[in-house]
Amino acid sequence: MSKSLSGKYADAAILHVSLTDRSIRREPLSPGLFKGYLGGRGLGVRTLYDRLEPHLDPMSPSNLLIFAVGPVTATSVPTAGRFAVITKSPLTGTVFDSHAGGSFGAHLRRAGYAAIVLEGRSTSPVYLWINDDRTEIRDGSGVWGKDTSVTTSQLLQETDSQAEVACIGPAGEHGVKLAAIITDRHRAAGRGGVGAVMGSKNLKAVVVRGTTKVAVSDEEGLNKTVERARRLIKKNQVTDKSLPIYGTPVLVSLINEHGMLPTFNFQEGTFNDAEGVSGEKLLERFSVRQYHCFGCPIGCGRISRLGGEEVGGPEYESLWALGPECGINDLEWIITANNRCNLMGLDTISVGSTVGCAMELTQKGKLDSSLRFGETEGVLELIDDIAFRKGLGAELGEGSRAFASNHGSPELAMQVKALELPAYDLRGVQGHALGSATSNRGGCHLRSYLIGPEVMGAPVLVDRDRTEGKPELVILFQNLSAAMDSMVLCRFTSFAWSIDDYAEMLTNCTGVRISGPSLLVIGERIWNLERLFNNREGFTSRDDQLPPRFFKPLPEGGSRNRVVHLEEMLPKYYALRGWDKEGRPTKERLKRVGIDKT
């Protein structure tokens, strides 16, 4: 990499906001921070590692909540409108980043910022209003207690109708560990309880309007690279056909055919009425149009008609969590429940998975409740109870691990590091299973999305049952994902682009010459720093584990008789990572990736 920065990102600032004394200050983006960690996830993780004391309570005023964009945000690079929220998770206790689409990220960058670093706690409800270079902390009592849609509408009336709002609902206000941050009414920084951290600060929303055009270092070069990137998206079957037509629910039928659609809280891998909740059926019955995030040519989002109202989604993970995971096949009800979660500001994956866990506890006589697989009665009300911490909902809002442990059956919680696993039975995908076990933020499919190569054949098809070569593949995808999340770009672009494509666009935007291999080194640096953070919090190799269920074979379906062979892959993964047997990065590896110098 070259030693100088050029292009607008070099002039971006970090906005520091203390909600305790209501002070606001701008700080120039450090060239070293950019060159070492880019932006987004990397910038946030570096900031947390440097500033947080070990074992800090995530709901403490001293925890930081960081909204960050990247060096390509709001440029012509496809999908460059996303943003990351980085904090210490109240659900997992790990370092955490959660991402959302829409246009909020583009506005933040156009207002001149690489990140907002929020600290402290206001004595009363407030919201942050950023109008280009003017920033105010405003009274938020008028929207406190309101759902995310009403909050969005009211704040746009109070500020600017062209602005973008990222807000919490009642779940975040009540400190629910499954609380999300919602933007554009249905896009969510959903996982890990980031909304609870926001609520703990008495911060209802961040509203931003940015109007300054983002300059790049080499506009002509970027135009050529972007033109090629768009052609690659059009040439790829997934990004040109499947996702634009059916959205992410296109995966329902495919994953079910492979016997990997978790059903009845992962007791089975095949849902008998998968067709009834498929992407095809959603398109036929409820979808009215595509939804495109800022600068996205794919348009994977769905807008559905529910009664006389248009609502967002559901996405594949949400549809699964509120459907097959709980044995529910009523598609209209699933859309209703998804919308209810969005209004309350709740993570649909964790809510559905935790309710599914409660259903199995009831099934096995461990819990006295009316919850039954396949039955929807009372579940919508339970979602409200989760958001408002009432009755059984207050227990469920702590997440499945705490809930199942409290009822004497921790093995029935389908989670890693307390984060609920998404919509793939790991017994059918060895590499994806390893990626889930070693994820730095817990049970997550996006840290290393090996569903692409192991199931979809993107970029190439690999044998999903083989363990050989999977540690290498997982590490590659983890490093690439860390780099992408720090640029900040949509994961779906990886179906069509190579690492060199990302590097070239980054170089064109910033003027810093970055090759594909050097971009992967940045990703590896971020991954190792996250591991150091978690090690400091007490996480070890014992936490790189999966629920016992995945070591017992599935009874039927396309993945029957399969189990996860984690014991074969994990030691090699550690060795390739340059970590010791306890999962701690060695001094030699840290020096190699440059953490000792940054």
Question: How is this structure best described in words?
Answer:
With 598 residues, the protein is an alpha+beta fold. The longest helix has 21 residues, at 516-536. 39% of the residues lie in helices and 14% in strands. Helix 1 crosses helix 2 (40-51) and helix 13 (348-363) packs parallel to helix 16 (400-406). The relative contact order is 0.13. The protein has 23 helices and 17 strands. It starts with 12 loop residues before the first strand and ends in a 5-residue tail after the last helix. It folds into 3 domains: 8-209, Aldehyde ferredoxin oxidoreductase, N-terminal domain (Aldehyde Ferredoxin Oxidoreductase,  A, domain 1, 4-Layer Sandwich); 246-418, Aldehyde Ferredoxin Oxidoreductase Protein, subunit A, domain 2, CATH 1.10.569.10; 426-597, Aldehyde Ferredoxin Oxidoreductase Protein, subunit A, domain 3, CATH 1.10.599. It has helices spanning 31-37, 40-51, 104-110, 148-158, 170-173, 194-200, 219-235, 237-246, 251-257, 279-285, 316-322, 331-344, 348-363, 379-388, 391-396, 400-406, 430-438, 451-456, 470-487, 499-510, 516-536, 566-577, 587-593; strands at 13-18, 23-28, 65-68, 83-88, 95-100, 113-119, 126-131, 134-139, 164-167, 181-183, 187-189, 203-209, 287-291, 301-306, 309-312, 415-416, 419-420. The strands form 4 sheets. Strands 2-1-6-3-4-5 form a 6-stranded mixed beta sheet.
